[in-house]
Structures are given as C-alpha cells and as structure tokens.
Amino acid sequence: MENYTMEGRTYRYYGQEAPLYPFGYGLSYTTFQYRDLVLSPPVLPICANLSVSVVLENTGQWDGEEVVQLYLRWEQSSVPVPRWQLVAFRRVAVPAGRETKLSFQVVAEQRAVWAQDWRLEPGTFTLFTGGQQPGQWTRAPSEVLSAQFTVTGAAQPLRGC
User: In percent, how much of the chain has pLDDT > 70?
Assistant: First the structure.
C-alpha cells in the first residue's frame, strides 16, 4: 500500500457525503433544546485550552438521556484534516422540564495537526455542540449550536507547549 491518505476511507474524510448512520444517530422518547453556548476565551494563545459551556434543557414530557457531543472544525489548515473532529462527549440524564449547564475543556492537544510531527497552528476554529454531528439530517429533531474562536501566535510543535 502506497497511498495512506484517509480521503474517502472513513466518514471523517468523505467530503460532502454524509454517513448513513453517523455517530450519535438514534431516537429518544423526549426532546432536548440546547442554548447559551459560551467559548472562553474567544481568542486564545497557541498553547492554551478552551473552556466550553452549554445549557441543555429537556423540553419533553419524559425523563431522558442525551449524548452531548462537541466537534471541532479547522477553518484553514496547512495539512488535510477531517471535516470535523469529535473532541468530547458526555451522556447526561435530564428530568422532564429541567435543564442542566454542562462544562467541557478542549485542550490544546485536540487542535494539533500531523505534519511529520504533531504541531499546533494559529487560525480560526468552529466548535459545534449538540446531540448529533454537524449537518446531520435525521427524523429526530436535535439542534447543533456552533461558535467560532481564534488561536493566535506562531505555529509550533505540540511538545513545545
């Protein structure tokens, strides 16, 4: 085998074609609503971590569990990267009519790209959070919120942080 590219070989690199059953696919007996997605800080140094918070509300009549998923997208990268990368997920039980505020940490290592060595690059990133992948169209309604953040500084090897 001489071609080690992942393009067209895994759902993360399919381009615009959506997978038949993406991660998080499924139905629930209740409905959830996401709101108040906050990224802090919105501009961070190259080696810094990103704090993320989001409010999840069970808007249905039944108690339920939701798998909250966070995906990262590089807006511009010097090397090929996935359309989006799963960086965190958590299964959360929320009683009917109640809400919970969730906090996540996206560490610098999760923004690293492979270019003969793991390295961090500056630029603009988009973070998605919801009960499914970004752009997923299913019969079960589920929101996906998004927000952008910017990484400043010069590109450097990950081990330099």
Answer: 79
